[in-house]
Amino acid sequence: MSKKAKPRMRQPLPKPVTITLPPATFQPKKADMEREYDMPGASLEQIRRAFFRPVRVLREESA
Asked: CA–CA distance from 11 to each of 8, 14, 52, 63 (Å)?
């Protein structure tokens, strides 16, 4: 008879990160659009923490 494996306990989710989107009419500068975002030397765990987390999205009101 084989033993049953213990169920893994779920890790609690981190608190959500809030990001605010600019209005739909916003035009970024060309330099901002061409800039690369890089994480040199980041471990897989750091990348997971940075990208796989709850996100709350807000929109700026256009004036």
From this structure: 9, 9, 13, 42
Phi, psi of 57 (to 5 degrees): -105, 130
Q: What are the start-end ranges of the H helices in the chain?
A: 30-34, 44-51
- List the domain boundaries for the chain: 15-26+42-63
Per DSSP, which regions of 1-63 are E strands?
17-21, 55-59
Residue 22 is encoded by which pair of tokens?
A: 């600019």
Which token pair is 8? 């893994």
Over the stretch 25-60, which tens digit does the pLDDT of each residue have? Answer: 888 888 877 877 777 788 888 877 777 778 788 887
